[in-house]
Amino acid sequence: MNRAKAMQRAGKDVLSFAAGEPDFDTPAVVKDAAIRALSAGMTKYMPTLGDPDSRAAIARKLTTDNGIPNCTPDNVAIGAGGKHQLYVALHCLLDPPPPGQAPQEVILPVPAWVSYAPLSELAGGKVVEVPTGPASGFLASPEQIEAAITPRSRILLLNSPSNPCGTMYPPDHLRAIARVVEHAVKTIAPDLVVLSDEIYEKITYAGIPHFSIGSIPEIAERTITINGLSKAYAMTGWRIGYTGTSGDWGRKFIAAMGTLQAQISTNITSFIYPAIPVALRECDAEVERMRQAFANRAKVINARLAAIPGLKTSPATGAFYAFPNVSSYFGRTSPAGRRILTSLDLAEALLDEALVAFVPGEDFGGCGKDHLRISFACSEEQINRGMDRFAAFLASLR
Ligand code: PLP
Q1: Which of 1, 113, 227 to mutate to test the pocket of ligand 1 (most atoms within 8 A of CB)?
Q2: Would you write out the chain's pLDDT as a tens digit for each of its 398 residues?
Q3: 251 and 347 inside one domain
Q4: Domain CATH for 343
Q5: How far is CA 120 from CA 76, 204, 212, 394, in A?
Q6: How far apart, in whole angstroms, are the C-alpha atoms of residue 169 and residue 178?
Q7: Of 240, 215, 214, 242, nearest in space to 226 by CA
């Protein structure tokens, strides 16, 4: 993304599909709420985990939209983006191993968002990858998860809709995974919890409803739901993320997050709190307008990618990413004489020679190394121009 931006600044007509953020502006009512609070002098320290109104608005949303049981304002933490909430939650869940002992394990279906593994390792955990691919719609099966669970399993980290795969776990699939977790807790993995990153929940368009695994009563009190305003409300720069939990266990967990967060960052910027209830309560129409735009873009890009020979992919059904397997082009040479052996080689050649920026899949783990991630948070016109360049470049490889 940075290289594409530098080339654009140097006057090159680069089409970038690299950014993981909506291209829309934040809804005006949300901005106005923050501006009013700033003008009114709401500029002082606040409670670490957030002001009571915002925590109550999030608890209500998690209860009514997501069906999370026994979710009170004390079951909610607010922090500086979904990433910061993941950092704090992972540090509360994982302990670095005592000398000579094995670390606690984080079960992670891959390909997965680039930050999960480093954040887990920073907190002292060891990532156990569960491989997925286009043939399974990038879904880890309940059997695969069962096979990955050991007495050291601490976290099952799920992300639906998925970055980078652009796919979603259907509700029944999540129910089956919940049964595996429930059984494992009673038998070999008493410390196992589910960490469910649902930051793309509003960006769905294939008839698969978003489903929160934390709504399943049997595992609600061992599920931690991460979400935020970044993607659904086009607010990536505001840095508003939150954590939701259930019941007494959840309240204790959130209190622990408060203890840690108080030593890291304290509250988020005070005058943006009033924007949170406004976004959650007053922006349904704007969120729906953006969702429809993403749905139309998904249709365009799914059709364009399906028409390119040699690509294997699962159609995007959620979030705003397409994730084609490009490995049938490995071993070829670009018009400028570059040997294409990896998705990184292909992404570099595409950027330098065709002026299209995609993200190479190496860092997402698993089969990601055979894929490119294409963010379609841009106009349909740009998608069509980018796909023209992509198809022509692939056809030019010898
Ligand atoms: N989770 C996933 C899967 C993401 O893709 C991202 C951002 O790209 C985040 C969490 C973090 O979002 P935030 O901007 O709220 O920190």
Answers
A1: 113
A2: 889 999 999 999 999 999 889 999 999 999 999 999 999 999 999 999 999 999 999 999 999 999 999 999 999 999 999 999 999 999 999 998 899 999 999 999 999 999 999 999 999 999 999 999 998 999 999 999 999 999 999 999 999 999 999 999 999 999 999 999 999 999 999 999 999 999 999 999 989 999 999 999 999 999 999 999 999 999 999 999 999 999 999 999 999 999 999 999 999 999 999 999 999 999 999 999 999 999 999 999 999 999 999 998 889 999 999 999 999 999 999 999 999 999 999 999 999 999 999 999 998 999 999 999 999 999 999 999 999 999 999 999 99
A3: no
A4: 3.90.1150.10
A5: 21, 27, 22, 37
A6: 12
A7: 242
Residues 193 and 161 in one domain: yes
Do residues 124 and 195 share a domain?
yes
Q: Is the CB of 137 under 6 A from ligand 1?
A: no
Contacts of 316 (CB under 8 A, 6+ apart): 166, 167, 206, 298, 301, 302, 322, 323, 376
Which helix (H) or strand (E) covers residue 321, if one does? strand 321-322
Ligand 1 nearest-atom number relative to CA 80:
16
Q: Check whether residue 224 and residue 334 sit in a common domain.
A: no
> Of 263, 282, 301, which one is at a domain's C-terminal end?
282
CA distance 164 to 162: 6
> Rounded to two decimals, what is the model's pTM?
0.97
CATH code, domain carrying 232: 3.40.640.10
Ligand 1 pocket test: pick from 115, 157, 202, 364 the residue with the most ligand atoms within 8 Å of its Cβ.
115
Range of the domain at 300: 2-20+285-396
